[in-house]
């Protein structure tokens, strides 16, 4: 069942280019060909709403957090995001001119399901983004969009996360088009970029060897920080969650700009700081935060593209070079090295990667 891999997690990380291509074939007419077009189900008219509320737990909630950047910047659609365990008890006011969107790999997470039931008669539509199409969350939603990741066995969510991001990005493009923020030609250009993603992901998987050779040193750390800006901030949260859940190393993700508001006090030469920074319009700002870390002898591991590594790699403890990627797709691509870092560090520590202590694949109690 592990198809020659040592762990389900390794298999599921490696499957990402293929399952993502499946998802694209499902949601994009002519994916990879000329004139690609979105193929989303009826009933997703984003002119009908003035707010989107997204709710999930754990990794799925970080997918929502990334998507908030996309919906707001590409479609001018205000978004709320919350973790389901807080949302359900907060009594959040919900408008009839909004949709609530629930993201869940299993579709059975108790808090997410309860949050869905709370939202049920308060919003215009309940949308679910799920991996298991027969799940409770899929059944109780007005509209369920499968992510088509295939069965995910490893407790640490990997391929479900990147497929969730892909589906959410396509929804954000639809929202941008519906709301007049993106022209049909712009959407088409984004979809053409999407077709390159499986290839770019294969490239990122090629970093496994380099990452493995860093893992012994990472495995010695007591604490690890992940930093990112913009949509890479939730990626930093995801990288930290992945590392702590399977390697049991204490890890935190921060928005790069928040560092100086407290966490920088933690930095010394024993704290690896993993910086997720494609060379985009926010790069210079992230680099200046990174330099604050280096000035305090923090061990920076920079994840960027060739231009970013050439510009800012000097003085870093290590740098990993990813392929250059369109901004929209960067969080999907950068998830891969974050997963590989967690995986190889856990292997170096000898933990049970697929069944980490205290965790269950599907959390059906609150
Ligand atoms: O099945 P769900 O997507 O609803 O699960 C949500 C979280 O329990 C899940 O993402 C959890 O955080 C993973 N172990 C993360 O790797």
UniProtKB/TrEMBL annotation:
Residues annotated as the enzyme's active site: 361
Enzymatic reactions: D-fructose 6-phosphate + L-glutamine = D-glucosamine 6-phosphate + L-glutamate
UniProt keyword Transferase present: yes
Subcellular location: Cytoplasm
Superkingdom of the source species: Bacteria
Domain spans labelled SIS: 42-181, 214-356
Keyword annotations from UniProtKB, A to Z: Aminotransferase, Cytoplasm, Glutamine amidotransferase, Repeat, Transferase
One GO BP: fructose 6-phosphate metabolic process
EC number(s) stated in the UniProt entry for this protein: 2.6.1.16
Main location class: cytoplasm
GO CC aspect terms: cytosol
GO molecular function: carbohydrate derivative binding; glutamine-fructose-6-phosphate transaminase (isomerizing) activity
Keyword Chaperone: no
Reported function: Catalyzes the first step in hexosamine metabolism, converting fructose-6P into glucosamine-6P using glutamine as a nitrogen source.
Quaternary organization: Homodimer.
Name of the protein in question: Glutamine--fructose-6-phosphate aminotransferase [isomerizing]
Gene (name only): glmS
Residues of the full protein shown: 244 to 609 of 609
């Amino acid at each position: 069942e592990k198809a020659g891999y040592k762990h389900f997690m390794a298999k599921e990380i490696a499957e990402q280019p293929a399952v993502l291509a499946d998802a694209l074939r499902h949601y994009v007419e002519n994916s990879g060909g000329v004139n690609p077009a979105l193929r989303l189900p009826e009933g997703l008219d984003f002119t009908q709403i003035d707010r989107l509320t997204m709710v999930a737990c754990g990794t799925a909630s970080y997918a929502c957090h990334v998507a908030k950047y996309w919906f707001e910047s590409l479609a001018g659609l205000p978004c709320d995001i919350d973790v389901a365990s807080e949302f359900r008890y907060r009594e959040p006011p919900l408008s009839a001119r909004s949709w609530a969107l629930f993201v869940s790999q299993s579709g059975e997470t108790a808090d997410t399901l309860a949050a869905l039931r709370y939202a049920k008669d308060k919003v215009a539509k309940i949308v679910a983004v799920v991996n298991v199409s027969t799940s409770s969350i899929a059944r109780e939603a007005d509209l369920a969009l499968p992510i088509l990741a295939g069965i995910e066995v490893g407790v640490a969510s990997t391929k479900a996360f990147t497929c969730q991001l892909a589906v959410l990005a396509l929804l954000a493009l639809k929202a941008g088009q519906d709301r007049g923020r993106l022209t049909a030609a712009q959407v088409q250009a984004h979809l053409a970029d999407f077709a390159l993603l499986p290839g770019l992901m294969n490239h990122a998987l090629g970093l496994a060897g380099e990452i493995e050779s860093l893992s012994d040193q990472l495995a010695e750390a007591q604490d690890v920080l992940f930093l990112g800006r913009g949509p890479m901030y939730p990626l930093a949260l995801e990288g930290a969650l992945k590392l702590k859940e399977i390697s049991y190393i204490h890890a935190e993700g921060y928005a790069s700009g928040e560092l100086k508001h407290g966490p920088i006090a933690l930095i010394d030469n024993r704290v690896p700081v993993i910086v997720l920074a494609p060379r985009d319009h926010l790069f210079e700002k992230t680099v200046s935060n990174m330099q604050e870390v280096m000035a305090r002898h923090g061990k920076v591991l920079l994840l960027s593209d060739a231009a970013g590594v050439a510009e800012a790699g000097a003085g870093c403890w290590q740098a990993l070079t990813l392929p250059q990627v369109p901004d929209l797709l960067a969080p999907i691509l950068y998830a891969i090295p974050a997963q590989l870092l967690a995986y190889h560090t856990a292997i170096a520590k000898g933990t049970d990667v697929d069944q980490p202590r205290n965790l269950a694949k599907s959390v059906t109690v609150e």
